[in-house]
Amino acid sequence: MLSDILLPDVVLKRCNHYFESILPNNSDALTANAIYFGNAEWAQEYLDFCHRDTHFRARWLAAGGDWTDKVVIDLGCGPGNVFATLGGKPRLLIGVDVAAGSLELAASLGYTAVLADAAHTPFRSGVADIVAINASLHHCDDMGAVLREGARLVKPDGILITDHDPQLTAWDYKGLARLMWDARLWVYRATRHGFHKTGSQQSWGLKTEVHHRPGDGVTNEFFRKTLEPLGFEVSVHPHNHQVGAEALSGSVGPAQWKYRMGNVLSGRDPAAPASALSLMCIARRVVHEEPMATA
Q1: Does position 294 have pLDDT exceeding 70, yes or no?
Q2: How many CB atoms are located within 10 Å of the residue 34 CB?
Q3: Among 124-133, 185-194, 209-218, 222-231, which is the least confidently predicted range?
Q4: For residue 194, is pLDDT > 80?
Q5: Are 1 and 66 in contact (CB under 8 A)?
């Protein structure tokens, strides 16, 4: 039950098919995410076309296993892509997001949906077997704060999994590659490519991507420096999305030609791990055995 994991004195307000917590802060990024992913049409499109492939499913099952009988908290759950792809029968499945429209969709898939700031959740510490943060850190003002909050929620021997956040070194385009990166928006808008079908959709979508731009993103060091002092064993796996469980064994998978070109024009080896598009972090909270008492 949701009430079993709430912090003392927390009272959530019921709104349609989700619960609402108090948002302690507001920002341009939070507002953009609430508007973009709160749009029913855009949220449905995101649910239908993102993170739904067999590579994603295989990679996540290899990282965290079946969610059946687990307590799972999905931070930045959006419309529910991760559970929609993985399936299973969790004992308790919590989805946290700031976008009401997405939470309505997530609730329809089986999430207990909670509107809350991913950096300030209303849950007690150490309650989740699995905390999932997929394609969400780079949408948040303070990536470290959200990662630390996710870590706080993990049980001893539980797992924190993040994925699909842009690797800083892969997206740090230089020279001609940077010009092509900037020009892509005109091309995408003219061709109504993907999530660029209207000026409004493109504009709000870009405003949500706070840390997805040249010179920004996540690094191996970011995950290790944040999580290891909190008592986690950390492994970080770079990949190009089109790779499954093999990513955990060092395979980055193939990259699309445009990303390979961007790395070549920026003076980097496109096949190097540092040129892989995203980082997947798997962090397990270490259980420290109590010393045996002596007679």
Answers
A1: no
A2: 21
A3: 185-194
A4: no
A5: no
- CA dist 247 and 88 (Å) reads 22
> Span 219-225, mean pLDDT?
98
Query: Phi then psi for 282, rounded to 5 degrees?
Result: -120, 115
Q: What are the pLDDT digits (tens) for 20-76?
A: 998 888 899 999 999 999 999 999 999 999 999 999 999 999 999 999 999 999 999
List alpha helices for the chain, DSSP H.
Answer: 28-36, 40-49, 54-64, 81-86, 100-109, 143-152, 175-191, 199-208, 220-227, 257-265
131 DSSP β-pair partners: 73, 160
The 10 Å CB-count burial string (b at 16+, else e) for 200-229 is ebbebbbbbbbbeebeebbebebbbebbee
Instruction: Give the C-alpha distances (Å, rounded to integers) separating 58 from 15, 63, 85, 86, 111.
Output: 35, 9, 10, 9, 21
Q: What is the mean pLDDT of residues 108-115?
A: 98
Residue 244 banded pLDDT, cuts 50, 70, 90: very high
- Which top CATH class is 2-285? alpha beta
Position 191, amino acid: T
What is the number of residues in the chain?
A: 295
Res 153: pLDDT? 99
53 touches 164 (CB < 8 A): no
Q: In this structure, are residues 133 and 146 in contact, taking their beta carbons and an 8 Å threshold?
A: yes
Cβ neighbours around 61 below 10 Å, total: 17
20 burial class (0-12, 13-18, 19+ CB within 10 angstroms)?
Answer: middle
- The phi, psi pair for 158, rounded to 5°, reads -85, 175
The model's pTM is 0.93
